[in-house]
Amino acid sequence: xxxxxxxxxxxxxxxxxxxxxxxxxxxxxxxxxxxxxxxxxxxxxxxxxxxxxxxxxxxxxxxx
Length: 64
Hints:
The chain has about 60 residues and is mainly α. It is built from one helix and two strands, in the order ββα.
């Protein structure tokens, strides 16, 4: 789909994707290209927001 070849002299790539650093752990064979899949991890986000709101509301209750 979006094939982009990236070569660097070090194992750390910090300018390919804005805000992300990729640390390469091992070399792959030239005949075996690798895929990098990036997605958003949203598990627990709703629970964390609810917990924050509950804590905030509890704090407001202490000032009433």
